[in-house]
Amino acid sequence: MSDQQVSPGIGLDVGTMSIGILGGTGEQGRGLARRFALAGNPVIIGSRSAERAASVAQALGGELGVRGMANQDAAESADVVIVAVPWEGHGALLASIDAVSRCAATMPWKGRHPIVALVTTT
Fold first, then answer.
1. 35 in a domain, yes or no?
2. What is the pLDDT of residues 19-57, one digit of tens each?
3. Higher local confidence (pLDDT), 76 or 87
4. Residue 113 domain-assigned?
5. CA angle 74, 20, 10 (to 5 degrees)
6. What is the CA angle 112-62-98, rounded to 5?
7. What gap in Å lies between CA 96 and CA 23, rounded to an integer?
8. 3-class secondary structure for 25-61?
9. DSSP string for residues in 85-97
10. Is the dihedral of CA 4, 75, 50, 108 positive or negative?
11. How many structural domains compose the chain?
12. What's the rounded Cα separation, in Å, for the pair 111 and 113?
């Protein structure tokens, strides 16, 4: 992603934006984290348990710089946050973090985990 351009209105190169993945210890979250890390983005895995997030981050790509922390800390630390939890868990998860400024995109899929990208405050 080294040839990425600065996104209009954001002022950041999307190829260098840090990506937080809340629910990153689940199957979908792990897959997204690994792919973003391999593409060169700094990745932060979020979980209800900071210890579990750190363990999964190390297993996925410690050599790639994948980090793990509690959901709130991941949301505060990342430029963009992806919520990768079952739809039924979104309300509780989003209520438990207070760093989110707005929802940028939501793609619920019937029978699957939806993806919600959130832009955090800086």
1. yes
2. 999 989 998 899 999 999 999 999 999 999 999 999 999
3. 76
4. no
5. 110
6. 55
7. 13
8. CCHHHHHHHHHHHHCCCCEEEEECCHHHHHHHHHHHH
9. S-GGGHHHHHHH-
10. negative
11. 1
12. 7
Q: What average pLDDT does the structure give for the chain?
A: 77
Residue 65 lies in domain: 23-98
Residue 53 CA neighbour count, 13 Å, CB half: 24
Q: Is 6 within a domain? A: no
CB 117 within 8 A of CB 104: yes
The verdict on residue 27 lying in a domain is yes
Closest CA to 66 of 57, 78, 75: 57
17: left (phi over 0), alpha (psi -120 to 50) or beta: beta
- CA separation (Å) from 2 to 5, 31, 39? 9, 21, 9
What global pTM score does this model have? 0.75
